[in-house]
Write a structure and sequence with these properties.
This protein is an alpha+beta fold and 354 residues long. It is built from eleven helices and eight strands. The chain has three domains: 158 residues; 63 residues, SH3 type barrels, CATH 2.30.30; 87 residues, Alpha-Beta Plaits (2-Layer Sandwich), CATH 3.30.70.100. Helix 4 runs antiparallel to helix 5.
Length: 354
């Protein structure tokens, strides 16, 4: 402690200028940050997008760190340190500055993908961040005068062994990358695989795809399996879909009257049943047609999305049942007619003889 005080007393004039430069730079940077970011926040408040707010917040945090790095650099350059020491300090501060800029740009790249890429997944976000980090690492190596070529060559030779060892992992990675870029399945789509799994896609990661079922369970499917599967996407080419409601009536009923009643109930339900669309209008078809004990008709309604079909069928069946009771339309039970007749006398004698 005494040695430090003695050193400061002897060299206070050598430290005065660097410390003054550092202090002045910090105060100036603090004032610039307050004024500039106040204007930026005022500007972003008038825009509809939230991305500019996130960009401003992402830059505001490390701004004073960059000012501190600049202050230390200017302080070192105005000090009486040897030129070699000044150069080393400048190089260290430059590397730290590039690293900080790289981390901020990586974060901004992830936010950009999240806001502006149509099919956002964690895989595309991570790939964007990794790409920025790789570019930053190359710039840092070049700053330190380290050649990138030997590193790339070593990675190329070792990459063959890594690819063989991680064959399944790489298969899932590239399958996930293909699924994300193809746009045939997107986050939020309701899909059904040929193996029976179905639900909403919640995320596509580097290894697997997460699907949330209607029972609110999560199904994890490897990306390689998803890429090879036959998929039914209920959100393409559009979310709206037709929902059939099967109805059976007695053979004593008039099919035209039943059709009119079904159309009337379908039109009344518009605006009352959530998800039911006005256009296209409900239609009725005399299909499957003639059943074993009933006339079978089908009411076709259009809903906004796949999840609306269960509620639609539930409500329409209740309405149709109440209307049929009111109009005395019979809903038949399955029946079978058995005809019994006496066997001829010759057959009866044969059976008795046997």
């Amino acid at each position: 402690m005494n040695a430090t005080i003695a050193f400061l007393e002897q060299h206070w004039d050598a430290l005065l200028v660097p410390l003054t430069v550092i202090g002045f730079t910090l105060l100036l940077g603090f004032a610039i940050r307050n004024s500039v970011f106040r204007l930026l926040h005022r500007w972003s408040a008038g825009t509809a997008s939230k991305f500019d707010d996130l960009v401003i917040d992402a830059i505001r945090g490390p701004f004073m760190i960059w000012v501190l790095m600049l202050a230390l650099y200017l302080g070192a350059q105005t000090s009486r340190l040897p030129v070699r020491a000044q150069n080393i300090a400048a190089q260290i501060l430059l590397v730290l500055f590039i690293l900080s800029i790289t981390l901020v740009c990586s974060r901004l790249a992830g936010m950009f993908v999240k806001f502006y890429v149509g099919s956002f997944t964690s895989l595309t976000e991570n790939l964007a961040r990794i790409a920025i980090l790789v570019v930053g690492a190359i710039v840092i190596l070049n700053t330190l005068s380290i050649s990138v070529l030997p590193i790339v060559t070593a990675l190329g030779v070792g990459g063959i062994a890594i690819a063989l060892a991680l064959q399944d992992t790489l298969s899932n990675l590239f399958s996930g990358f293909y699924v994300s870029l193809a746009g045939q399945v997107r986050v939020g789509d309701y899909i059904r695989l040929d193996s029976g799994e179905e639900g909403y896609i919640s995320d596509i990661s580097w290894r697997s795809t997460s699907i949330r079922s209607l029972q609110n369970n999560v199904i994890i499917i490897p990306n390689a399996k998803l890429a090879k599967a036959t998929i039914t996407n209920y959100n393409l080419p559009e979310q709206s879909m037709v929902v059939p409601v099967a109805v059976s009536v007695s053979y004593n009923c008039d099919p035209q009257l039943v059709e009119n009643l079904l159309l009337d109930e379908g039109k009344k339900a518009v605006g009352q049943v959530p998800g039911l669309l006005v256009e296209p209008a409900p239609v009725v078809r005399f299909a499957p047609g003639f059943g074993p004990s009933s006339l079978d008709l089908t009411l076709y309604c259009y809903v906004r999305k796949f999840a609306d079909q269960s509620l639609l069928q539930h409500e329409m069946r209740k309405r149709i049942f109440a209307r049929f009771r009111q109009e005395q339309i019979e809903i038949p039970f399955p029946t079978r007619t058995v005809y019994m007749h006496d066997a001829p006398a010759s057959e009866r004698s044969k059976r008795i003889g046997a």
